[in-house]
Amino acid sequence: MKQIKLLFISFILVAAVSCKTDKEKSYEIISQNDSNGLTYESVENDPTGLRLYTLENGLKVYLSQNSDEPKIQTYIAVRAGSNYDPKESTGLAHYLEHMVFKGTHKVGTADWEKEKTYLDKISSLYEQHRAEKDADKKLALYKEIDKVSLEASNYSIANEYDKMTASLGATGTNAYTWFEQTVYTNKIPANEFDKWVDLESERFGTLVLRLFHTELEAVFEEFNRGQDNDFRKRYAAMLDGLFPNHPYGQQTTIGTGEHLKNPSMVDIHNYFNKYYVPNNMAVILVGDFEFEATIKKVNEAFGKFERKELTHPILPKEAKITAPIINEVFGPTSESISIAYRSAGVNTEEEKFVTLCDMIMANGNAGIIDLNLNQKQLVQRASCSPTFLNDYGYHSFTGSPKSGQSLDEVKELLLEQIEKLKKGEFEDWMIEAVVNDLKLSQTRQYENNSALADTYVSAFIYQQDWSERVQFLDDLKKISKEQLVTFANNFYQNNYVLTYKRKGEDKNIVKVANPGITPVNLNRDKSSDYINAFNKVESKPLQPKFVDYKTAIKETKTANGIKVSYVLNEKNDLFDMNIIFDMGSDNDKKLSLAAGYLEYLGTEKYSNEALKKEFYKLGISYYVSTEKDKTYVGLNGLKENLPKGLELLEHLWDNAKADKEAYNKYVEKIYKGRQDGKTQKGNILWNGLMNYGKYGENSPLRDIMQIDELKAINPEDLVALVKDMKNYKQRIFYYGKDVNSAVSALNSHHEIFGELKEYPVAKEYKETETGGNVFFTNYDMVQTELMFLAKGAPFKPENMAASTLFNTYFGSGLSSIVFQEIRESKSLAYSAFAAYRGASKKDSPNYVMAYVGTQANKLEQAVDAMMELMNNMPEAEKQFNAAKEATLKKLAAQRITKSNIFWSYERLQKLGIDNDNRELMYNSIKGMTMKDLKDFFNKNIKGESYNVMVIGNKKDLDVKSLQKLGKIKELEIDYLFNYVDKKEVKL
Fold it and tell me: What residues form DSSP beta bridges with 282?
């Protein structure tokens, strides 16, 4: 639910969306008054059209319009995160984030005065519990907390906030906490804005810490998930080295296990009262609304909040790093390394130089690391990325070793690339190309309401002058190569933190005892006066809009008769072109191999490196990708360079030259990728075990070429296979402006000769019947994760309405039955869901699925709770009506636009549907009753026999609880993926 944001995505704001050379522009800040008498700022030549208001109480309001869909991305940001946690209460800001979802003195309570008496008592007990040192007395206090919490739950109503946002048709209801921010998110239908803003005003007006100890257990499960995440361990160790004094490195957002065990409700209230004040908060709205009506409502709702004087703590300064700092962490996943340099923070000149250095080093195409390490396959993978925070930033370089390579060898290769930067070993045109690349990325970002809203969040949290952010890339353009090289020589020295992620046992794992929580009452049949009044408020109905695919997707043909489907891009000058072959790896296993190999090839005219540079200079990207039943040859980027980009792609396609050395490295890379994949628990569960649960031994995942077979292939044959693709039936989809120019480019460069061939017959894989099996794979982890899978009836379009409503009511979302029972009431998991998953292909079976991730000592309770729900669906009429209303509103607000028009139609046709089926779904759901849903449950879910896939630590496994589900079969990872276990690959 509420996820810790461990990786900060640094959004760079730009001055213009065109990638042509810009004349000097003015970015003057303009201050104006609107018709409400409220003052706002805008920036001349700001492509986002931002209006930035500051209300009288100090609240910042960021408004930007986008009418592509009748929705509004909403963020409420607080300029406070884990940096400001008290040293004795780490994890507090994040736990507070969870509690803000629990309601107020009006929301989530059936009788506030009675409930408050118990909550005050619980708070007092927690203070005693925190101070008590005697273990037995401490346990006795916890049991008393559990007892009083059960009594308090007689008056609480779980998930009322979530129910209300769901009733609006909101999606993405969530929050995240990081070092300097806590941010609350919703994406709402535009017509529900009035109700949303009133609800948020109520929500942030009062903090009530109800259902506290059950939510604390959910946070512990989140803590356990972090212990099972080796990337987080490496990241934390890197920060510890970079910031030995500052909270960036000394206080994790999740907090320590000891502090989580000993919370203080008093401390949490104090934090809320200090930082959750209007002059430390922002409301950020991007979407379909009118500026002046919207700000008026925001002012009415939030303008009444009282401003409070606030001083953020002064945090420690760090001394310069004068010699490499070395850390290491251990865990079961594949080995990797990071090299990180501490920088200045946001709003500094150093931010500009590091940003530019980062893109010169790695831009995914023609960076120093891209060309010298990834394209030459000298490592398994390598990259770099910058992060900029308020007080400091850092530039981190990461690498993974190829087979037989040590981490120190990867380290030396990364440092060698940094030396190339310092020596200026990159082309003079790279700075301009990098800036154009960033502009192109920004153009795409501005099309997305959520991504744009994220940039405003960053601007607020990091106190960025919006005018300076808008002209950021113009400033980068002014940096010369000489200046950049001088900076690099001063910045990248022996002042880095080196972090080794090694395979091995992590001896720092914190074992968390099962406290034996008594399930609290959910009170689904009750409702507060607030929600009753809320539900009576009627918003102006939003009418759904459905797509007429026959008219929305236009068609033309190339001179050689190939069908071109197209949708015009009315937003910008970017294009996306795909040459589509309706055959994939099921038709020929070598297709995906050949597609991947092409990435490393050149021609007689261009080396592979030269090709990458040529494409990058054009602002064009190409790709060849293969799925089970499709292969795509794609090209995207600046429309004006489409002809040159297509000419270059076709040149590669027609003239690719096999390279034996590159192929040997490619096979080695595949081998190492398989070995690395075997160490990833998500890959083991969701790919390995899931495929075995569906298909048994004869799964498409296991039907692979072994390394010996790959080595025996002549790379000339793979090149011939790629070239021969042109001789098969094909079709084209184009999204962009001026389709005539695109077709003209195809006529000039995409030459086809003779009659096109039919596709090879695809191999079919038959799903097995499910039931009575428990497939287990041993893995060194804290949690145990289970997936329940039952094969259902073949896909029928008429079931899509009922299954969509069922999933909303029963298994997905914060207010669903499964989430409430497994997490909110019983505190058995951080993540739990159930779903009726429709097939992706006509005549294929649907599946019933359920998932729960829990600590091993809660396994039996979690299994029993999930199986009870899957056989006896609770009937809650109010909750059903809310789920029905939410589903209808989501459908009404959904708009299929741009290139999604074509791709959504592709998915429907695969299911044998030739129209926008959402219209039928919408009309069907309108007439559904609780009885209809119960009938669907009884027919499709109740009594199903499951294959249960389990991954966990064998030594902690509760075997008896699993034996109730079926016969246990332990499966080795190599067997799941059908990998031949070879220690080395010699080519």
Answer: 60, 77
